[in-house]
Amino acid sequence: MDQDAMKRAAAQAALDYIEPGSIIGIGTGSTANHFIDLLAGVKGRIEAAVASSQASARRLQEHGIPVLDLNEAGRLSLYVDGADEANDLLHLIKGGGGALTREKIVAGASDHFVCIADDTKLVDVLGKFPLPIEVIPMARELVAREVRALGGEPVLREGFVTDNGNVILDVHGLVIDEAVRLESLLNHIPGVVTNGLFAIRPADVLLLGTPDGVRRLTPQGG
Ligand code: 5RP
Predict the structure, then answer these.
(1) N or C: which end of the chain has fewer CB within 10 A?
(2) Burial code of 208-217, b = ≥16 C-beta within 10 A, e = fewer?
(3) Which strands form 76-81's sheet, in the order they lie side by side?
(4) pLDDT tens for residues 60-118?
């Protein structure tokens, strides 16, 4: 089974978590796109969706799925999204698609976070995937210096502007063994909007597409 088929299988399994008649949050990326496409087949099950990016909102609307602003939706029962890396505590690195800030907002507004991914995303230690940080443009160099002092090597994502009008620094070379602490530390650098660590609010369930079917993981040893 190829990686894309494993993503789709994980997305399919996430449909079981939908409460009938609810408003759900939906993430961004190729795995989230599978979820949106599969949701289209059962769209009567939900009242509406809140999207974590303009791209996901467009895709939902193309399928005729009503999209609400988070401010109109209130608390959401479920958030479904992919990840770039996950560990066994279900701490995640996200933001490969640059939507990390809205993803963190919608995840934070949701009672239950179901992460969907193929099995290449499960790692022992987070950090091989460069950690994205969304930064207010005028603070780019300040944040880069502070990140270097923490041992990371920031690289500006060239030609990319987030849905919020900001830039992304992708931080290479971090070995992240204290994800909650690092997430908080990075958030306190002036000019940082969000970083791509989802550890303070990790996923509740990880549905992992594997060649042998979908594995369901919950946080271990935390
Ligand atoms: C976007 C994200 C995505 O969830 C992450 O990049 C995984 O993407 P994909 O499902 O395409 O592998 O955080 O900002």
Answers:
(1) C
(2) bbeeeebeee
(3) 46-51, 22-26, 76-81, 110-118, 205-210, 213-217
(4) 999 999 999 999 999 999 999 999 999 999 999 999 999 999 999 999 999 999 999 99
Q: Residue 156 Cα, ligand 1 centroid: separation in angstroms? A: 18
Asked if the domains at 3-123+200-214 and 131-196 fall in one CATH topology, the answer is no
d(CA 2, CA 61): 28
Give the list of residues 6+ apart from residue 130 with CB closer than 8 angstroms, or none. 155, 170, 171, 172
User: What is the pLDDT confidence band of residue 160, given thresholds at 50, 70 and 90?
Assistant: very high
The arrangement of secondary structure in 3-123+200-214, i.e. its CATH architecture, is 3-Layer(aba) Sandwich (3.40)
Q: Please give the model's pTM, rounded to 2 decimal places.
A: 0.97
Which candidate in 19, 47, 103, 153 is catalytic?
103
Q: Which fold has domain 131-196?
A: Alpha-Beta Plaits (3.30.70)
Domains of the chain, residue spans: 3-123+200-214, 131-196
AA identity, residue 165: G
Ligand 1: residue of 4, 28, 160 to mutate (most ligand atoms within 8 A of CB) is 28
Per cent of the chain over pLDDT 90 is 98
Is the pLDDT reported for residue 222 higher than 60? no
